Amino acid sequence: MALVFGEIPIHDALIARYTSDAWRSRIYAIKYVITLGVSALAIPLVALTHKSEGGFATLFVLMAAFIVIIFTAAVFLPAARQAKAPVPAMARGPSG
Q1: 48 to each of 9, 12, 43, 56, 76, how far by Cα in Å?
Q2: Could you identify which of 1, 29, 58, 92 might form a hypothetical disulfide with 53, taking C-beta atoms 3.0 to 4.6 angstroms apart as the criterion?
Q3: Is-contact 37 46, C-beta < 8 A?
Q4: Shortest CA distance to 15 belongs to which of 4, 1, 26, 2?
């Protein structure tokens, strides 16, 4: 659970860094709506899987498959572009 709750600020920081100011609130809203929808479906799906298969073995295999899919998607995320550091202007003395 610590890892799950530790992921939330990292995810929010990524959204804050890679979205424009104009779109940031919309992206946060979409993220939270999707999160609420998925979490509302998770409990019934776990119960249905456990009931239909009679144990947790199938549930753990399904969760492992989802982990592989998520990891594969993360590997193919686009690489961050390195911004060139601005060249500082020369300071002018009192003579101008």
Answers
A1: 31, 32, 9, 11, 32
A2: 58
A3: no
A4: 26
Per-residue pLDDT 10s for the chain (96 aa) are 677 788 888 888 888 888 888 999 999 999 889 989 888 888 888 888 778 776 778 778 888 998 899 889 888 877 766 656 565 666 565 665
Report field, pTM of the whole predicted structure over 0.70: no
| Interacting residues of 80 by C-beta distance below 8 A, sequence separation 6+ | none
Tokens representing 93 are 């003395």
CA angle at residue 81 from 79 to 82, to 5 degrees? 130
CA distance 32 to 56: 29
**Alpha carbons 42 and 20: distance in angstroms, whole number:** 31
User: Quick count: other Cβ atoms within 10 Å of Cβ 59?
Assistant: 14
